[in-house]
Amino acid sequence: MKLRKNFLIILILTLCLLLSVGTALAKPVTITFWHAMSGSRLGVLESIIESFNAAHPDLEVKPLFTGSYAETLTKYVTAYPTGTAPNIVQVYEVGTQTMIDSDAIIPVYKIPEMLGETWDWAQYVIPITHYYSVDGNLWSMPFNSSTAMLYYNKDIFKAAGLDPNKPPTTWKEMEEYGEKILASGVVDHVYSGGWPDWIFEQTLAYNDHLYADNDNGRTGLAKKVVFNDDFGYMVFDTWVRLHKKGIYIYGGVEYEANSAFNAGQIAMLIQSTSSLAGIIKASKFKVGTSFLPRFEGYPVGNSVIGGGSLWITKGQSDEELRGVWEFLKYLSREDIAIKWHKGTGYFPASSGALKTLLDEGWFSADQTYLTAFLQILAGRRDTAASTGVRLGPFVAMRDLFRAALEKAIAGELSPKDALDKAAEKMNALLKDYAELYGK
Amino acid sequence: MSKMTRKTRHDIFIHAILILLVMVLAFPVYFALITSTLSFQESYQYPPKLIPGKQFMSNFQEVWDRINMGRLFFNSTFISIIVAIVKTILALLAAFAYTHFKFRGQGLLFSMCMITQMLPLPVRIVPTYQLMASFNWINSYYALTVPFFASTTGLLLFRQFYLTIPKDLPDAARVDGASPMRYFLQILVPISKTNIAALFVIEFIFMWSQYLWPLIVTTTAEMRVVQIGIKMLLASEQIAPEWNVVMAATVIVMLPPLVVLMLLRKSFVQGIAMQTSK
Amino acid sequence: MQEDRFPGHKFLPYLLIAPSIAVIIVFLIGPFVQSIRESLFVSTPFGTKTIYVGLRNYVRLFSSPDYRSSVIATFKFSAFVIIGGLSISLAIAQLLNQKIKGVGFYQVALIWTYAISPTVAGVIWASMFAPATGLIPYIVSKLSGGYTLNWMTNGNIALFVVATAATWKMLGYNIIFFLAGLQNVPDEFLEAAQMDGAGSWKAFWRITFPMLSPTTSFLLFVNMLYAFFQVFGLIDIMTRGGPGNATELLVYKLYRDGFIHLNTGFASAQSLVIFLVISVVAIIQLRIVTQKAIYSR
């Protein structure tokens, strides 16, 4: 009898434990915010949110790190139909088309109207707003915009007998410099990079070359990719050749290569501008930054915007929406945008913040921060190719691209074959997407 | 005499191999331990350091602060214990039914239990997620535990054991007028102690290792488990991975299953011996 | 089937299995049926539109070179983990089974890897092999005079490192089971064999190995499940399927297609295929286990 009693007690206890799971208690107005910021960026973001919450006692923004960009998007997509989506979600540029087609969000340009306010959308930096606009209207709030640039180790340049103030500007120079640095024996490999898929997109845009048809998917859903032509082959060939020579060493998917650069094991790094603050903090040598290398003799385009923007879930209560809008306005504030920029390296999205930074001499004190701006502001912004790519199944397409590059580098496929095969698979994905969205 | 020395030589040889094996197997963990005591700079020294530094406490503190390790630790422990207990109870009951009774549909129902093995969570992950959503269980302990409650391992383990019990035992109990449940609770469960311990070890370690499901089914920091904590420290770090901090986390995460395994080692090994014996 | 030990309790057995069966129906069979249904559709990520496509997802799956390479990678990986892991642990167990001092110590010192989670194993091995800064590339480069070991650009090395880490983690478990199995082999059998003049090697293959077959078949199955499913965290932490799909095992591909690329139908089709493969192996294994059970009565 006793045993049975014990047994029952265990069962009941187990059930009680399960039932006693606390669900979050509601506060006045809670704004949930899913993001993919981690590491040193997370600290900056959290301190901004803390100051917002302190200044708005009636509101509480609750940030949650939901993993990488891809995982964050996935979680949002799965959460939305179940009603557990956050008020605000940060989505990387790759997910832009998915979000536009989602029917799950309110385009940000409509929010002030809905709340009976007006807002000056012209205050944001144009290349950024271009990327996230449909028919001239902004669909998501610019937040963490970056582009890619070249980082180099001035000490290694010096040790190899190169002018530390003359970084390579073309891919031809990359190769020449690379050979010299290798010959000097200072390092075993010369350069590496992150986000190889994105860097490829950058390279096309920077030389004013389209990635996909229908103006990079901006005038209508893209039907096929167009990068597997002579220009694309040349880019791919160059990378694979440099890898064979030992100048380039493949650096993984995201930021894995930064450690080798910080440790002084490679001389150059092609990486997102958002790594700048982190790299300066972690490296002991003099860091130089410069524009992405170009291919000589091809038209000039622009480097494109990467990073993420904030999307607002539809179906929120007016109270929540008002809170969300307060938060978005807060993020646009000059001082906040400046804090964000200085802490991370992301662009301040508004022209006002940019001007203040100039006035206070931020860029002359540290010119490494200037490169990114000069690069996107010096380039053209009137062509589709230089505005950036927008594709439905972009996440999967990037994976295909990366696999192709990895196979070409490993010598499993010739550069041309690898690129053609990837293009073929991507076209199939684009076709499926067009079929689903029936246009 | 010469036989003795040959035996001794043979033994020394075996000891040497075994000690070498122990060291090889332990090396990765030794490496993790060392790294967890280094500073960030030291962890990137070239050649890599193999002697301990002095930073363990501060790395440990970092882990605690940065990913809220205390909470994650609680969550992992909680769900592992709950799942291990409930799985054991369900398996005991089912094994009792399948070995001591004859009922219609027995074969079919038994096969149904066996199917659990062939449908691990990754195979049905999308619809299971949708199911959680329809129950409103996303981001709750229910979602982290209930879908794991069925256990083939446990059922087989107990069934195997119960089949070897001489039938005089239940018969005697029945003649004495004991009800089936009384026989189950007072005789069967107590003699299954070793197997229960073995199953507890297996299921605790299994649950502690869960990664994909908690990653998908939780949406707030409070509901995360330790495995995700490691990923948060690692995969997403902007500058290079901070191996020293990451390793401090792995050292913490390694401990509970190790403790469970070591505490219950004797019963665990015995339970498994019973399982494999003829 | 055994006899009824408690005749007259008609409903009790159903009551006893009810909780298990309920969990299985609601959380296993239900979702599985649902995923078979979904494999016949394609839908937008947010589920705003769904189109019936019949068997198209399956046709695509079987004609996809990426899927084929994933099957091959899974096969190689599993073969390494199963064959390599089982033979090493059998050898270790055999050593442990010698009558020497300190067996208890060695047992503890050799089985603990079982308690390591795949994720943790992945992190540790990834850091030891970190291309530019890790310990192993350093040693390799010193020993070989400058060879750069970079598993991020070499699919074979990547698969090897991932498989080694996975095998390492599973050794403890396999050793425990083999040791238990070995201890059940009666000494008299071996002694008798040795009397007949068989060397210990021969005795092992003639006596020990056949007597271990239930243990071996059980471990084969458990290790296969492990290699198929439980290594997800290890792959995600170490390689994310790269470089160039080299370590994209079936379970990882399923996750990426279904959850990252948001192609539920395609992923569901993969679920069914994996299920069928596992079922075939499971049925074979169950045969052996149940036969053994009958034999033991």
TrEMBL record, chain A:
Write down a Pfam family by its short name: SBP_bac_8
Which Gene Ontology CC terms are recorded? periplasmic space
Q: Where does the signal peptide begin and end?
A: none
Which residue ranges traverse the bilayer? none
Give the keywords, sorted. Signal, Transport
Give the main location.
periplasm
Q: Give the UniProt subcellular location, in the record's own words.
A: Periplasm
Q: Provide the assembly information.
A: The complex is composed of two ATP-binding proteins (UgpC), two transmembrane proteins (UgpA and UgpE) and a solute-binding protein (UgpB).
What the record says about family reads: Belongs to the bacterial solute-binding protein 1 family.
The cross-references to PANTHER family, in alphabetical order and at most eight, read: ARABINOSE-BINDING PROTEIN-RELATED (PTHR43649), SN-GLYCEROL-3-PHOSPHATE-BINDING PERIPLASMIC PROTEIN UGPB (PTHR43649:SF31)
Entry protein name: sn-glycerol-3-phosphate-binding periplasmic protein UgpB
Instruction: Give the organism the record lists.
Output: Candidatus Infernicultor aquiphilus
From TrEMBL, chain C:
Q: Which residues are in the ABC transmembrane type-1 domain?
A: 71-285
Keywords assigned by UniProt? Cell inner membrane, Cell membrane, Membrane, Transmembrane, Transmembrane helix, Transport
Question: What SUPFAM superfamilies does the database record attribute to this sequence?
Answer: MetI-like
Localization recorded for this chain is:
Cell inner membrane; Cell membrane
Q: Which residues form the signal peptide?
A: none
List the Pfam families.
BPD_transp_1 (PF00528)
Q: Name one GO biological process term.
A: transmembrane transport
Q: Spell out the subunit comment.
A: The complex is composed of two ATP-binding proteins (UgpC), two transmembrane proteins (UgpA and UgpE) and a solute-binding protein (UgpB).
**Name recorded for this polypeptide:** sn-glycerol-3-phosphate transport system permease protein UgpA
Origin species: Candidatus Infernicultor aquiphilus
